[in-house]
Amino acid sequence: MIDILKAIAAKIDEEKDYLTELDNEIADGDHGVNMAKGFDAVVAKLDAMAGKDIGSILKTTGMTLVSTVGGSAGPLYGTAFMKAGAKLAGKNEMDGKDLVDALEAAIGGIQMRGKATTGEKTMLDALCPAFDALKEGIEAGEDLKDALAKAVKAAEDGVEYTKTIKATKGRASYIGDRSIGHQDPGATSAFYMLETLLANI
Amino acid sequence: MIDILKAIAAKIDEEKDYLTELDNEIADGDHGVNMAKGFDAVVAKLDAMAGKDIGSILKTTGMTLVSTVGGSAGPLYGTAFMKAGAKLAGKNEMDGKDLVDALEAAIGGIQMRGKATTGEKTMLDALCPAFDALKEGIEAGEDLKDALAKAVKAAEDGVEYTKTIKATKGRASYIGDRSIGHQDPGATSAFYMLETLLANI
Amino acid sequence: MKKLINEVVNVEEEMILGLVKSAPDKLRKLDCGTVVVRANKKEGKVALVSGGGSGHEPAHGGYVGEGMLDGAVAGAVFTSPTPDQIYEAIKAVATDKGVLCIVKNYTGDIMNFEMAIDMAKDEGIKADYVVVNDDVAVKDSLYTTGRRGVAGTVLVHKIAGALAEKGASLEEVKAVAEKVIANVRTMGMAITACTMPAAGKPGFELADNEMEIGIGIHGEPGTSREALKPANAIAEELLNKITDDIDFVGKEVAVIVNGMGGTPLMELYIVNNFVHDYLDKKGIKIYDTMVGNYMTSIEMAGFSITLLRLDDELKSLYNAKADTPALKR
Amino acid sequence: MKKLINEVVNVEEEMILGLVKSAPDKLRKLDCGTVVVRANKKEGKVALVSGGGSGHEPAHGGYVGEGMLDGAVAGAVFTSPTPDQIYEAIKAVATDKGVLCIVKNYTGDIMNFEMAIDMAKDEGIKADYVVVNDDVAVKDSLYTTGRRGVAGTVLVHKIAGALAEKGASLEEVKAVAEKVIANVRTMGMAITACTMPAAGKPGFELADNEMEIGIGIHGEPGTSREALKPANAIAEELLNKITDDIDFVGKEVAVIVNGMGGTPLMELYIVNNFVHDYLDKKGIKIYDTMVGNYMTSIEMAGFSITLLRLDDELKSLYNAKADTPALKR
Ligand SMILES: Nc1ncnc2c1ncn2[C@@H]1O[C@H](COP(=O)(O)OP(=O)(O)O)[C@@H](O)[C@H]1O
Ligand SMILES: Nc1ncnc2c1ncn2[C@@H]1O[C@H](COP(=O)(O)OP(=O)(O)O)[C@@H](O)[C@H]1O
Ligand SMILES: [Mg+2]
Ligand SMILES: [Mg+2]
Ligand SMILES: [Mg+2]
Ligand SMILES: [Mg+2]
Description:
Chains C, D: Homodimer. The dihydroxyacetone kinase complex is composed of a homodimer of DhaM, a homodimer of DhaK and the subunit DhaL. The complex is a heterotetramer, with two copies of chain A (about 200 residues) and two copies of chain C (about 325 residues). With about 200 residues, chain A is mostly helical.
């Protein structure tokens, strides 16, 4: 899990400017910078977590994100990681079922905090279809990698879908119809996380 | 005299942007606008002055410039016209000697107010050489137009000369050596007045 | 990006240090971060805490002091502060009478403040919050996260601050804050974008003859892009929208003509000249006017107009003494 | 040119109207032009009049009021006002105790004020003037018209205004104004030019990595163009020049970190953070700090730093009550 989180941090850092650029187009241009700052802080704590269970690692990750990212992404992703961590408390391995549970908890946390649903041009438009695909695959008996690959594809489609819709949550909602045609930064960062998870699992 | 002043007003108005541009390069970019505003006000008073003596007309011109131009050019040109008017009080015609006297009084007024001398990159660098040339011509018995033509040439050279020197008076002095290479707006407007006088006398 | 700063990462910290050094008798910075509190904590009153992203200076740190806020939390530029920083501010200013947080209506701000308030309550601190949403620009606010909180927030600080200073209870202070929120409306525009230091380039590009109408205070584009027109016509457009939203006719109002940070005062006065003529004509009585940079978007050029309907209670609190770096009365 | 104005020719008039409408209880505009006087004339005190071109808002009209000026005359943008306007201001505020004009050191300003004062004296009004020249940027000031008057002028208004309010004589008020002038020094810089409305385009062009050092307040270029550097290094350069000019070590000073009109407050606070560290290190004691837009060049982005050496007399006058639109104490 530590390696996966480091890989996610590296990916976010790599895409920092792009995420900021996306946020700049429809909102306030801080998503990339803030996410990178948060994952830098996470990385600084990871080595000390060696040997800890997945649940603890994810919980620490969530708390660190909450206290360093700020904005909307801080509490949303922070809560998501904390909830996923709570679900995986005590585990040192993660199978398909665990990932389904963790993602479900994460999405639940995001919805509890942000009170959004799919179709509002948020990270949920990447995460929810990904969750559905993952769950379907795992329940159909596919192995974790195959099911996750489908989930990543669904997230990618979700990111594409955000271009076609109007934001009704978050700062991008203030510009109304003018948000149509632009890709949601939060959905994009969510896709990167899933994609990196797949590549490193 | 009324026609001459109207012609001067028209010339200043025509060169308004150029004078402003010159002032912008080395100082605060208001010379053309302010001079044009002043001469507009003068023109508005001229018709009512029909039949008055040259002295009164010039005095009114000076007072109008003082109360509408502002900045340095207002008191300087205003005083110049008032002093010239005082010199020509009661006259309805102006001969060569009168013009010499009037210009001498005008320059005296400028020097009294502005405490500058030639070589400081001001209107005096056009006016003083013009006065010298005019006086020399008139004293040598040349007719007014010939002598004034030489004065206009001297003023033009004076304007050229201002490009080669550093300003030590007025706002342009604050930028020190950086004023070298630029033409003085006040010398330029003084040259236009003399040139227009020659063309309309 | 052309800015008078040092390292981008230090902008918020140095800014807060510079603010506190400008008024060391009034302000103190907490060691834990970019949090400003009164130099001398006052007991026996409800403590007011506000905050949000940096970039809105003098908001919010400039409004800490007698008669207004007790603490202010500055996040990264245009980014709501994190719950732990807000929690530290609440802890530092909390009194027996409780703490009221004044939060501008943004998803991030509300989530972070709510988490901090939960943490404070867990520690036995009496804490509550109000949400300011004065911006009438957003069209179908029912289908968004609602209206944004913008310059009207300063009047919430002022009036709730005055009542808190008098020793009123948390419930009373919250009620008067909500009364201000119910009666205050704002709309803004911009002729230039601003540049977030971390982004390094402007949030949007405008041609020389274009403007954005209905902007917020976070450098985002407005609700529409229009051809630039004379100041009076722009002000009229904003005032029409504001006075259509709630009824101001026959009422007494406080007016803010607020600069977005890069607008010269000359232009704000020109706008104010029209605002007064417009309100006079509409039969809206002007009780008082504030013209200046009260809630900004870094160096954005533009302005917003705020109107607050006043009654006798609000008038007396509006007039009460305030002694803060950015607002004295 | 992108500005929030109506017709260029009306800028000054609308600006003054907007200023007066923002504080109708304090200010009154004379019908004869862009002249602002106190709404309620105070007899029995020396009347203070200042003025200059427009474009320096809030100077000078914003400093009219109790404890500061009695009248302010606004010329066209960056153009000293005409003698007749100044004369009207003097006449409107004159008392038996006389009138002191506070003039910034520019050829035009001095000539116009001198002519106005002559006119006033002819009418039997006791009138005198002082010339402020606090700008240390100009190199060989012996070979120019001397140093310019810039942001330090506000401190002359404040301190001479406080003494005049107490009922001191014209000679006493003039003496204290000259004491401030002898002890105040300023230097400024810019990262962008400003645009005179009538000129329609910026006074100069700067590349993204360039700045002008040693600017005045009239949109003119500075004494040198340099590569842009961090805010701290710029502030250090200005402070070195200021503290080289007269000796501040061991003295108590009032500080102004002044924005040129388009500078965000965020950046002024960042500069102030360094200014304090610098002065501390040099053994210069900071008595008080003002951070904000006090003497501007329309929408220019940049700042100036002003230091005033204080003694007990100046401190008590600096602290005295002031109640004007732009400065309250
Ligand atoms: N209510 C919400 N629920 C879920 N996701 C949201 C919500 N509001 C915003 N987001 C997501 O947050 C992203 C913006 O994050 P960020 O830029 O860090 O925060 P902010 O909008 O406060 O600047 C958006 O792109 C969107 O995906
Ligand atoms: N002391 C002086 N004596 C004579 N002419 C001067 C003096 N100072 C300035 N000038 C002239 O005035 C011109 C500038 O006029 P203007 O732009 O109207 O005034 P300001 O400098 O006040 O903006 C200069 O170009 C110069 O020719
Ligand atoms: Mg954002
Ligand atoms: Mg000029
Ligand atoms: Mg943000
Ligand atoms: Mg001028």
